[in-house]
Write a structure and sequence with these properties.
This protein is of the alpha/beta class and 132 residues long. It has helices spanning 50-60, 73-80, 94-102; strands at 3-7, 25-29, 36-40, 65-68, 85-88, 107-108.
């Protein structure tokens, strides 16, 4: 089994990155051996379409599962039709997320996408006073 985890760094001791399309790295990990391959997420600097580009990178990596914080609707639409299992990560290290995945403690992403504290739930969407 090959699992990909969004990460703030290039090792399993790095924090899981709660962002999907704009995550710093994607770490491909074999949960049995903990052998890790880091992929720099080139789409994180894109002016638009980062989620879709990141989803395609996940598909191209030929993994069995994805662990991430917030998976938006566009990325979810791309990944939904694949055989990649989608899981909501927890605010911890990549290694801890892998341990929880192996123990069956991570929740699958729902049909409406994943949620993560502080990600995308408010009307202001990070803008002052909700103004565009």
């Amino acid at each position: 089994m090959r699992v990909i985890v969004t990460s703030t760094g290039s090792t399993i001791d790095s924090q899981m990155d709660p962002r999907f399309g704009r995550a710093e790295y994607f770490l491909i990990v074999d949960p049995d051996t903990m052998k890790t391959t880091a992929i720099d997420n080139a789409s994180r600097h894109a002016s638009g379409g980062a989620g879709i580009a990141a989803a395609q990178a996940i598909i191209d990596a030929r993994v069995d599962a994805l662990v991430t914080g917030h998976l938006g609707p566009n990325a979810l639409n791309v990944l939904r039709d694949t055989k990649i299992a989608l899981y909501e990560g927890v605010p911890s290290t990549v290694a801890e997320n892998l341990n929880q995945l192996k123990a069956g403690q991570l929740k699958p992403v729902s049909a409406s996408g994943s949620s993560y504290p502080g990600q995308g739930g408010g009307l202001g969407q990070g803008r002052r006073g909700g103004q565009l």
